[in-house]
Each structure stands twice: as C-alpha cells, then as structure tokens.
Amino acid sequence: MVDCFQTLHTHFNCLIYFSPVVTQALERDVNQANSDPTVKAVVICGANGKFSAGADIRNFANIGQSKFSSLESVVSLIEKSDKPMVAAIEDLAFGGGLEIALGCHYRIANMKARVGLPEVTIGLLPGAGGTQRLPRLIGVPAAIDIITTGRHVPATEALKLGILDEVVEENPIEAAINLAQRVTGQPLGPRRLCLKEVPKLPNMEAFLDEARLKVKKRANGQLSPQMCFEAVRASVYLPFAEGIQKEKQLFMYLLSSGQSKALQYAFFAQRAMEKWVLPNGASWGTADPQPVKKAAVIGLGTMGRGIVASLLKAKIPVVALEQDKKQLEVGKAAVMALLEREALKMHQNGQKPKKPIVPHFTLDFGALKDVDLVIEAVFEEIALKKEIFHKLSVICKPEALLGTNTSYLDIDEIASVTDRPHKVIGIHFFSPAHIMKLVEIIYGQQTSPSAIATAMSLAKSMGKIGVVVGNCFGFVGNRMLTHYYDQAYFLIEDGSTPEEVDKVLQEFGFKMGPLRVGDLAGLDVGWRIRKGKGQTGDALPPGTPPRHRDGMRYSPIPDMLCEMGRYGEKTGKGWYLYDKPGGKIAQPDPWLHGFLSDFRRTHNITARTISQDEILERCLYSLANEGFRILSDGIASCPEAIDTIYINGYAWPRHTGGPMFYTSQVGLPKVLAKLQEYAEANPDIPSLQPSPFLQKLVALGSPPLKEWASHVRSQNSKL
Ligand SMILES: CCCCCCCCCCCCC[C@H](O)CC(=O)SCCNC(=O)CCNC(=O)[C@H](O)C(C)(C)COP(=O)(O)OP(=O)(O)OC[C@H]1O[C@@H](n2cnc3c(N)ncnc32)[C@H](O)[C@@H]1OP(=O)(O)O
Ligand SMILES: NC(=O)c1ccc[n+]([C@@H]2O[C@H](COP(=O)([O-])OP(=O)(O)OC[C@H]3O[C@@H](n4cnc5c(N)ncnc54)[C@H](O)[C@@H]3O)[C@@H](O)[C@H]2O)c1
Fold first, then answer.
1. What is 295-469's CATH topology?
2. Residues with Cβ within 6 A of ligand 2?
3. pLDDT attached to residue 346
4. Is residue 61 classed exposed, middle or buried when 0-12, 13-18 and 19+ CB atoms within 10 A define those classes?
5. Which residues form the 3-hydroxyacyl-CoA dehydrogenase C-terminal domain (predicted)?
6. Quick check: CB of 154 below 6 Å from ligand 1?
7. Among 397, 327, 325, 410, which Cα is nearest to 366's?
8. DSSP assignment of 481-523, as one string?
9. 432 preceded by cis ω (within 30°)?
10. Given ligand 2 and candidates 297, 302, 406, which is best to mutate, with the most ligand atoms within 8 Å of its CB?
C-alpha cells in the first residue's frame, strides 16, 4: 500500500533552511508526484527529525538574484495538486516551513513540535502566502497574534487553533501516511486555503482599528509588526491573489529597510556568542564544562532572588543563603512568590507547570560545603565581597566554582583572597534576573577556560545568552552606560528637561528613556556606587568643585536628588513625580523643574534650547565611543558581543542592531565628526573625545563591521 504514496524528504535536511536549491528540488519532486499515476498521495516531511526552520536567512542579501520568489509558487503548486498532500511536522515548522505546510491539505505534528511565523523578529513578514492563508485557516485575531509576534506555538495549542489537524505522541510520518490513505479519494477543494473565506467577525472594522493601534504601540518603532498587520488586514479586504501581491510588495519593502538588515545581524550576532574564543585561543575546543548538580546563591535581594529562580528553571537544586533571619524571611517570601508567579504564567500559557524544586533557605555557610557553584549577590562593596570569598574558599569543596554577580568590581581583586583564583568568575545577571536574557561572563587574569565553559553552559541551561568579556570597571555594558547617563545629566544641566531627553531616546526605540529607567532601578543604586568611588559623600575631599571630579565634568544633580530622599519610583519622587511611593504613573514634576532652574542660576549656567539631534547624538555616540575603546582594549572580542549585550541586557532597540551596528549604519565618519564637534564644545568631557580606534577605522576607509575585530588584532599584535 505504501508503494503508491510518495514521501518527500530528500532535500529537507536537519534544521533545514530553504535555499533556492531546496525550493527547486521540492518543485521538481511535487511535479513528478503529480504526473506519476502510481502516486496516490504525498507526505512531505523533513529529514533527521526536523521539518523546517524556514528560509535560509543568509540568502536574503541576494534575494534580487535568487529564486526566492518561487517559494510561494511551490506552496501554490502543492495546494493545487489533485493528490492529497500531507505535512508531517517533526519538532518544528517555522517561517517558510510552516507556509509549505499551510499549502498542504492536511498537517500532522508530533507532541513536542512547535510551529510559527517568526519572520517579524528578523524584520520581515511571511512572504510565501502565510499572511493570506493563516487568517483563512484560524481567523484574523489569532493570525494577527501569531504573525505580528512571531511566537512559537506549541503543538497542542496549534491543534486547538486549527493549524494542525492531528497531533501524535511520536512519529508523525507514520501517522501522516495513515491519514493520507484515509483521505485519498475525498474532495480536496474544502482543504485548499486559497479558496476559503476569511472567517467573518461581527465587528471586523472596529477590531482591526483597535488591533492596528495595539500592534503599533507594541512595535516601538519597529516596522515589521506593522507591515505584518497590514498584510493580514489585506486578507480581509482583498481576494486571495491580490492579497498575495500585497504580501510580496510589503515583503520587498521590509527587505530593503535597514531594520531587517539590523535584525538579521542581531540574530547571527547572538548565536556567534556561543562560540567564545579567548585572546589566548581557549574555547569550547580546549575546555570542558564542569557539571553543576547543586548551586548556592548568597544574598536574596533584588538580584539574588531572580538568580535562584533562574537556577531552579535549569533544574539545579539551590542553597539560598542570607545574612540574618529577617532578611532570610523576606528573601524566602520573595523567591516563593516569584516561583508561584512563574507557575501561574506557565498555566496561563497552557503549559503544565512542573513541580518546583524548593530551595534550601539557610543562614549557615556550612550548607555550602558540597555545592558545585556559588553565585554571590550581596551588596556592591568590595570589602564585603572579599570577606565572603575568603570564607567560601575555606568552606566549599576545592573543585567548586565561585561566581560573583558584581556590576563593576574587580574580579582579580575578589579572586585574590581565595585559594582558587582560577575558579573565580564574574557571572553578571541583569535585572530582573529571572527575566532578562543576558549574562556577562567575566574572566579575570587567572580564570580557567573550564570555569568559562561551565558558566557559559550554565547560562544556556537557564535559557540565557552568555557573552564572555574581559575584566575592567563595569565590564562592557555598565562601562559604556556610564557615558550615556553622564550625557543625559549634562544635557539636563545645560537646559533640557528629563522629559525631553527621555522622549528623544524613546522615539529612537527604547521603551523608556534614561531618566525614567533611573527612577525605575532606583537612583540610590548609582549614588552608592559613586560614594564607593569617593565621588560624593563623606569621602569627598573638602574644596572639591561641585561640578568637576579629577578635572572632568561631573553632574552632582543625581546625588542631590538622593540626598533629598528622591530615589525614584520607590519613594514616589525622582526625576519624575509618581502617583505614590512604588507607583508606576510618572508625571513631569514642577518642583524638579524649579530645582533645575535654581541649580543653573547657582552655577551660572545659561539654559539653552538643545536640539533633538544633539540629545540623541551625545547620548548614543558617547556610549558607542566607549564601545570602540572596549574593543581596542580587548574587553569585548568583537562588536557583535557589545551589540548582543546591549540588546539583551539594556533593552537597546533590536531593530537598530545595537550601538556598534547602529554606528556603522550612521557612518563612522559622521560619528567621528560629531564627536569631534561635541568634544571641542565641551573640553571638560573627555569621554566625548573620539576613541583612537574609531579614528583608526575612519582612516582605514571605514571597513565593514565584521572586519573591525581583525583590525583590533592587527593593532594589538603590533604593540
Ligand atoms: C526579485 C524579487 C521578487 C519579489 C518576490 C518577493 C517575495 C519573496 C518571497 C520570500 C519567501 C519568504 C519565505 C518565508 O516567509 C521567509 C522565512 O522563512 S524567513 C525565516 C524564518 N525562520 C526563522 O526566522 C527561524 C530562525 N531560527 C530560529 O528561530 C532558531 O534557529 C530555531 C529554528 C528555533 C532553532 O533554535 P536552536 O535550536 O536554539 O538553534 P540555533 O538558533 O542556535 O540555530 C542553529 C543554527 O542554525 C542557524 N539557523 C537557524 N535558523 C536559520 C535560518 N532560518 N536560516 C539560516 N540559518 C539558520 C543558526 O544561525 C545556527 O547556526 P550558527 O549561527 O550557530 O552557525
Ligand atoms: N540591582 C541591580 O539592578 C543589579 C544588576 C546587576 C548586578 N547587580 C549586583 O548584584 C549584587 C546584589 O545587588 P542587589 O541589587 O541584589 O542588592 P540588594 O541590596 O537588593 O541585595 C543584597 C542582599 O545581600 C544580602 N547580604 C548582605 N550581606 C550579606 C552576607 N554577608 N551574607 C549573606 N547575605 C548578605 C542582603 O541582606 C541583601 O538581601 C551587587 O553586587 C550588585 O552590584 C545588581
């Protein structure tokens, strides 16, 4: 019986991406099956246990010359076939892969499969008929949700929505062959999505108007969600063939936009981080990760509690330690609340919450004697961290890895008090630690490659993106951020309002501007760090000029706000006024505006009107300028590392590719010229002086970003 079925999988290889070759082969095989009278039905499946991840993203740069445009015609060829076509989806069907499946008359998947149209996340829209077929299959609201978010839909949900016809425990190919046998001879017309009407809604017009606004708001300046919406909307008002034309037109518009280039760059940059290599050549090839069967977290404050939740998510049992009974109770309640919230979220998403492993809460350092890894997250004070690491080196077994979540402090200094500096490493999470994807993995002078491999593999098992970086004050992310914030403060001193600065950065694509983020994180956090550095507070030598430190411009305004108890959201006042302490509704604060006027008067600053361009350029170029210094110092191995850090740790708008990619798109000569201009106007702000490496790149004719790292290497090898 199977003889009269044809199973097409020859050209669908593992994690297959459609290239013109695959598309042509599929077309050829479908044509062959159509014309062979012995073939009664066709099952389309992938090889090696995967259906398809969609089009090969690396091919998009050459789409003009490629045969990509034929993918929709192959989908259409499949759909028009007189023989039942069944998609047997193993594990995943994304993008063009799902579009092929939508062209089939039936779709079957295994239980652990996921399907989706993630094109929106790489700045595109489904370009092989997905925006026209999916709404016909599952209705407009569900199609808008799936296409504008690009989310991965689990098989059970896809079955409920009607994307899949059947879900089987194990082998969907066998089930697909059975199904093909059952349906042979039945009419195929009703199964062809191109012939179906889009299901009507009583209030379609109003629904679409509201949905457009929601998509636009969520998009934050990203074009692809909005174009995805427009393409789905076209399915409601246009006949199928015209809808397909509209989809193509919008696809080409997105493809030629800088945003899709940036988003595809970000996709590959993130994946490149897994393949870390140190300047001395150490890498996965030379280092094995140690198993982490049990971990400990010290300090259950803002960060510690999220780190505990992240470890538990990776199914690692955790000892959670605090300094006193009261803090332990507070930390325990917070961790348990986090775990409950996570379980509730899973439940709401239709996933079965797993039975959580409950941490072992303790005050006793002795409970750490058998852990494989410790992550310390106590206050940002070097003396305290050193005291704890000394204790750990006495208590923990010799092979245990000792990690610190410090934001700025010197890994080598912390390692120096232990008996195992090669096992000391920075594991820097971002707040909220159970949500944010980024972990900076910081190696000190003596950190072993195996410790790096262990931390990287831990990051992956927690579902996070590890980026290996060198050791310096603030590492990569926070070192660059200091300059961004300095510019925001200086602009406010010079005449801008917090609202103006935030608006410009929000329009650029950040969800919140720097001042609003400062209020959210707590202005006291930076205040404590500046006090620690002796820039403010009791340690400040008498006679220090209020607006300069070590001959460089310094803004005392954030310190003054803290001295007045204005810590931001938590106290109800900061750069903005809030509805209540802990409130989220931010209003411009007339008191603060008055305070700024008084400050300028006291310090003889004549307020000037500052253009939006100046606000944007000074904030972003000064941050990227430090990125060039970081590259030149070898703290980040490549610009992709910096961009991955910024996108995933600091909510930098992904559709601009990250600070280094953005700078490359603006044009290095322009960035250099602007920095020179601002540096001349502000001689007491040395961070505006263009970095020598940026100057070198411009002198070299602004080579493409992917070549920058090799210019650093050649520069350093000549030293
Ligand atoms: C003249 C012009 C005519 C005009 C006509 C215009 C019409 C144009 C018609 C165009 C047709 C469009 C068809 C379609 O709509 C478009 C698409 O399909 S776009 C692609 C959509 N798919 C995706 O976005 C999926 C992206 N991938 C993932 O999300 C994940 O990789 C995964 C599939 C969920 C797997 O995740 P993991 O298991 O974690 O694995 P990794 O992510 O680490 O990936 C492993 C490895 O694979 C590489 N990779 C993954 N997907 C792709 C891909 N789609 N293309 C290329 N490479 C891919 C990834 O980079 C890793 O490799 P490494 O980087 O480590 O070497
Ligand atoms: N808050 C952030 O946004 C953020 C982001 C990344 C990294 N970090 C870093 O993480 C670390 C912790 O920051 P946080 O914001 O969670 O601080 P936090 O003040 O919220 O929490 C610190 C916790 O450590 C506990 N603690 C102090 N001394 C201790 C000891 N001897 N033994 C056990 N517990 C002790 C405190 O009781 C407190 O609960 C710092 O190094 C900080 O720089 C913070």
1. Rossmann fold (3.40.50)
2. 298-304, 321-323, 327, 331, 377-380, 384, 388, 405-407, 429-431, 521, 525
3. 81
4. exposed
5. 474-578
6. no
7. 397
8. HHHHHHHHHHHHHHT--HHHHHHHHHHHT-SS-HHHHHHHH-H
9. yes
10. 302
Which of these, 451, 361, 456, 469, lies nearest to 407 by C-alpha position? 469
Task: Let me know: does 129 contact 99? Beta carbons within 8 Å.
Answer: yes
Q: Which tokens hold the place of 517?
A: 């983020």
Does 99 qualify as catalytic in the annotation?
Answer: yes
In 3D, which of 515, 557, 514 has the Cα closest to residue 536?
557
CA distances to 131, 133, 134, 250, 410 from 128, rounded to whole Å, are 8, 9, 11, 12, 52
Pairwise CA distance, residues 244 & 549, whole Å: 62
Ligand 2 atom 39, closest CA = 301
Domain map (residue ranges) of the chain = 2-256, 295-469, 496-602
Q: Which residue has the tokens 């090889």?
A: 47
Q: How far apart are CA 715 and CA 719, in angstroms?
A: 7
Contact between 72 and 26 (Cβ < 8 Å): no
Residue among 12, 13, 15, 58 whose CB has most ligand 1 atoms within 8 A, to mutate: 15
Burial class (CB in 10 A: 0-12, 13-18, 19+), 317: middle
Q: What count of other Cβ atoms lies within 10 Å of the Cβ of residue 137? A: 17
Ligand 2 midpoint to CA 380 (Å):
7
Catalogue the E-assigned strands of 173-287: none
**Ligand 2 center to 360 CA (angstroms):** 19
Domain 496-602 homologous superfamily, CATH: N-(1-d-carboxylethyl)-l-norvaline Dehydrogenase; domain 2 (1.10.1040.10)
Global pTM reads 0.94
Distance CA 555, CA 305 (A): 33
Contact 133, 71 (CB under 8 A): no
Structure tokens at 248: 């193509």
Rounded-to-integer distance, Cα 113 and Cα 154, Å: 6
What was the pLDDT predicted at 64? 58
Q: What is the pLDDT of residue 3?
A: 32
Domain 2-256 adopts which CATH fold? Answer: 2-enoyl-CoA Hydratase; Chain A, domain 1 (3.90.226)
Expressed in angstroms and rounded, the spacing between residue 289 Cα and the centre of ligand 1 is 28
Pull the structure tokens for residue 593. 């505006």
Question: For residue 170, which of 115, 112, 98 has the smallest C-alpha distance?
Answer: 112
- Please list, residue by residue across 407-424, b when 16 or more beta carbons sit within 10 angstroms of its beta carbon and e when fewer do: bbbbbeebbbbbebbbbb
> Taking each helix axis from N to C terminus, what angle separates 659-666 and 258-272, rounded to the nearest 10 degrees?
140
* ipTM confidence score: 0.90
Q: Tell me, rounded to whole angstroms, the distance of Cα 39 from its chain centroid.
A: 47
238 by DSSP, 3-state: which? coil
Q: Is 56 in the pocket of ligand 1 (CB under 6 A)?
A: yes
Q: Is the Cβ–Cβ distance between 537 and 593 less than 8 Å?
A: no
> Cα–Cα distance between 58 and 265 in angstroms, integer?
10
Cβ atoms within 10 Å, residue 342: 17
- Give me the residues of the chain with pLDDT under 50, please: 1-4, 9-15, 719
Residue type, 252: M
